[in-house]
Amino acid sequence: MVFGGHLSAQARLTEIDQEQRNNRMTTSISNYKMRNITILFVFVLVALISCTETDIEPGTPMCIENRIISFNKTSICDNAHVTENIFQGKTVYVFSPGNTCGADLTSEVVDSDCNSLGYLGGISGNTTINGEKFSNAIFVRTVWRK
After folding, report:
1. 47-81 pLDDT, tens digit each
2. Which of 7, 24, 56, 113 could make a disulfide contact with 11, Cβ separation 3.0–4.6 Å?
3. Is 108 helix (H, G, I), strand (E, B) or coil?
4. Cα–Cα distances in Å, from 20 out to 15, 97, 99, 120?
5. Neighbours of 87 (CB within 10 A)
6. Domain range list for the chain
7. Whole-angstrom Cα distance, residue 82 to residue 73?
8. Residue 30 parent element (H or E)
9. Burial of 56: CB neighbours in 10 Å, binned 0-12, 13-18, 19+
């Protein structure tokens, strides 16, 4: 009740209680929204990281890693891969686009400093790098697979 423009003590307590409930409700809703935004942010971050992550074997030279990252973005075949080989006494890497997208694609052979040595396959079916049959290369490992 109002007496002389003032609320009674009971009415004032009821008003304060209602304000506190409204504040708790607003805080609760804000906390709920913030929690949902945080969860959404975490999921988006995980999705972005997983989309850009490229599993490259340890010990691969940095220039080859960078080249694999670019190759991963541009290769269209699901079975693209990069192998490490010993050829003519040097470590070389073969960037194979895979064989599910076309028979006439070429595989680039590069040395560990990322210098291109030539291409294998293609329409001509090339099998020679630096004047030697690449079949003489010794397979070491697969350093990356799409």
Report:
1. 445 444 679 999 999 999 999 999 999 998 999 99
2. 7
3. strand
4. 9, 65, 68, 76
5. 19
6. 2-52, 62-145
7. 14
8. helix 9-52
9. middle
